[in-house]
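Researcher: Next sequence.
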Amino acid sequence: MVENDTMVDEKQRQVEGAGPSEGQGPGDAVALASELEKVRAELAESRERLLRIAADAENTRRRAEQDVAAARKFALERFAGELLPVRDSLERARAVDRSVAAAATEALFTGVDLTLQLMDSVLDKFSIAMVDPVGARFNPDQHQAMSVVESADVPANHVVEVVQKGFLLNDRLLRPALVVVAKPKT
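Model: Next structure:
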């Protein structure tokens, strides 16, 4: 670009210095002016190309930053998917009727409760939210219907029972909630 500016300056000096002096006729001045215009047009085109290249480089850099941010945000997706069955097993163990359990197993239930609390705090720490839609309207984006039952108590297209809770990772569905959906009684 510096070379182009230098060339334009030289051509302009030649054109300005050109006049009806010795050895130069009016045709030479017109030719020089024409050449100067060509050089100026090339310079403008080069500047435009440079601006486009700089804009493309900036867009590429911005896209790369967005890709890296998304990769960081969802890097734990596979890990979280592997961790969820562990949580499900602990929750099923806790669901056992405690009234029939012997006093010796009460310590087991306490341990399971504490483990679930610890597990939930880890999930919260990594922005993994539970989807427990009992009574909520059926949402196919977050729920997977396992069956449909007639219900007079629950409005149609609402969740009657959650078979397995769903989970979101940073508001992105990690696993849908498996649900039983109500339909009107016939």
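Model: The first strand starts at residue 128 and ends at 131. The chain is about 55% helix and 20% strand.
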